[in-house]
Amino acid sequence: MTNKFFYTTVFALAAAIVATGCAHKPVAVTPIPPSAYGNVPEQNPNTLPPGPPINGPAMTTTGNPAIPESGPWDPSQFNEDRSALAADTIHFAYDSAVIRDSEKANLQSVASALQADASAKLMIEGNCDERGTEEYNRSLGERRAEAAREAIVSMGIDADRIHTISYGKDKPVDTGHDESAWSQNRRDDFVLLHPKTGT
User: Fold this and answer.
1) What is the DSSP string of 98-131?
2) Residue 99 pLDDT more than 90?
3) What is the 3-state secondary structure (H, E, C) of 54-103?
4) Assigned domain for 158 exists
5) Residue 89 lies in domain
6) Which residues contact 181 (CB under 8 A, 6 or more apart)?
7) Which pTM value belongs to this model?
8) What does the pLDDT average to over 89-100?
9) Model confidence over 136-187: pLDDT tens digits?
10) Which among 5, 19, 36, 85 is least buried, having the fewest CB atoms inside 10 angstroms?
């Protein structure tokens, strides 16, 4: 009985020594340096602002890369002629920036006016009807203006002579609230620009 107690005590003591002798020291954790961008809060992906296209250059409504515009013009250097191309305004279907075949003759008339006066430039103003948000209509108006710009460039006009602007739903020609009015407001207006004398 004494031997059994002795061996049990020795075994328990040995196990305790082994357990304490083999304990591992905690491994030091390498600190991660702060991000170069600082503390970026999480954001709801549904509220993120739109970013640049992921797959290549910006695309237009025709599926072709957008034609880059030259630097901004100084409006004070030009005289606006809104009457010269007023009859060539083109109109669009609801929620569309596709130029209909029935509007192409007007675009050809605009291109001819630019070919006849090499010093003239063109401003294309994209417009929408009153439905939809301000942000969406601003974007749609720009797509409409850019679609016309592409078409006119394809007719042989230098892209640097044409600039676009979108007014969204801010400049209706008809203030009614039905399809008759809306169809008139979904449009591109063309403004011929002539350099002021001495500029």
Assistant:
1) PPPGGGHHHHHHHHHHHHH-TT-EEEEEEE--S-
2) yes
3) CCCCCECCCCCECCCCCCCCCHHHEEEECCCCHHHCEECCCCCCCCCHHH
4) yes
5) 79-182
6) 129, 172, 174, 175
7) 0.64
8) 97
9) 999 999 999 999 999 999 999 999 999 999 999 999 999 999 999 999 999 9
10) 36
pLDDT single digits (tens) 59-81: 444 444 444 444 566 767 899 99
116 in any annotated domain: yes
- CATH classification at residue 164: 3.30.1330.60
Q: Dihedral of CA 76/115/111/163: which sign?
A: negative
Residue 51 per-residue DSSP state: -
Q: Is residue 41 included in any domain, yes or no? A: no
Q: Is 165 helix (H, G, I), strand (E, B) or coil?
A: strand
Residue 183 contacts by C-beta under 8 Å, 6 or more apart in sequence?
91, 129
- Is 107 part of a structural domain of the chain? yes
